Amino acid sequence: MLLAFSTWFLTNAVAPGLEAATGVSQAVIVQLTNGVQGGFILGTVGLATTGLADLLPAQLVFGASAVAAGAVNACLLFPGVTVWSMAAIRVLTGISLAGVYPIGMKMLFSSVPSARGLALGVAVGALALGSGLPHLFAASFAAAWQPVVATSSALSACAGIAVALVGGRDEVAAPAAVPTSAALSPASAPLPGEAAVAAAAPAATAADADSVRLDVAASPMAASLASPTAGQAGQRRVQGDPGAVERGSPAAHASPVEEGAAPTRGRSSERCGGVLALWQHVPSRLAFLGYIGHMVELYAAWTSFAPLLVDRLASGLNGAARTEALATASRVTFGAFAAGAVASPVAGIVADRWLGRSLTTVVLMALSGSTALWVGFVTSPAAVIAGVLLYGATIVPDSPQFSTAIGELAPPERRGAMLSVSTGLGFLVTMITIATTSLLQAAWGWGPAIALLAAGPAVGIVSMLLLYVRPEAQAMAGGRR
């Protein structure tokens, strides 16, 4: 995942050289990142609707997707490439990467069932560090952008070949059959918000360690988190609408599903109902609003790091001085991504063991949002470098905590759909904020453009504090809220 995602922010990393070679403006190059966002959304939707993630071996889907991302990315090297062909290449790169991250998460969760929270933080860290790699390459190759494209393309292809050859377990084995009475008893499947949640939490960890149901999800996090939790490992889905069966009623114990039957796949009706279910379930709605606030800020800020640093460090310089300034800007940008990559698993440990998900995300959003208010206004090279590094370290670690929270809070029969919808909408929001931030920067400058991103974490903080005081929050982080 780390190597394949070196293709995501590629054009953003080589913008100065690409601008000089092709005459495409900086603003247009920044918008090319939106092509990857859109392609990624299309790709994840395609995976969800075709079922390829389950029909084919996971390592082969991952391998083919990573190789495809590298091959498509390399097309930027063709002579006479135009802005429209670059846009098409970026969209196809995003579509290819949709087969890398969700499937990689699926394989990862199958391999380390006893440490999924930490694994999710590590995977998000891989996404962040991989996204920053082209900036490190750009610093190494100075103004030459072609070697950066070639290197990231080769790494992505090598990643795909390695995973396809090494392979791994595609799925966790279905849980062993359990007595119908135990599988369908009220105590075995507590819903968020009920008194049984706290009591069932310790048993949930052990039960979930041996099983996972990965829904065919239209998002990176959905594919990794749509596993049963809170003692639901042995539960069999009742035919018909699960939401229509009252817990404890005779119907709840009269499932026509035979013992030992394979778990039912998520149905299209459940995915279509994901938006409504996500909004109607109040705890999930609050976690979703927190996630959206986070996504308002994340990718727009990531896209702004390099051009902001170039503007502050290289403006007015020429020759060797400008080349060195551009290299410094690339190194600092990579450092910001790397800081977020290191902080992501650390934040996962803090959330799991001490603060819980609500307060961990609140602290991180307060830090990132407050940084957004000033980092675009400073002109001192030292100050802007410090600000970008701080911003990079605090803007990404809360991402896996939001997705984990939604997975923990969601009703079991809607978990996959709600995770799919939430992350899909989150990436859609990033397309809007990337475009808006670029337009505002051209009109008002970096200060106001980045400062307005703080509105996202402000909404997220309010939402997560409202979630923290609700009793349903005990379903998160083993009762730590």
Please provide a written account of the structure.
This protein has one domain: MFS general substrate transporter like domains (Growth Hormone, Chain: A), CATH 1.20.1250.20. The radius of gyration is 23 Å and the shape is globular. The chain has 21 helices and no strands. The longest helix is centred in the C-terminal third of the chain and has 57 residues. About 22% of the residues have low confidence. 69% of the residues lie in helices and 0% in strands. The chain is mainly alpha-helical and 481 residues long.
What share of residues is helical? 55-70%
DSSP strand tally: 0
CATH class: Mainly Alpha
Roughly how many Å is the radius of gyration? Answer: 23 Å
- Tally of individual helices: 21
Kindly report how far apart the N and C termini lie: 30 Å
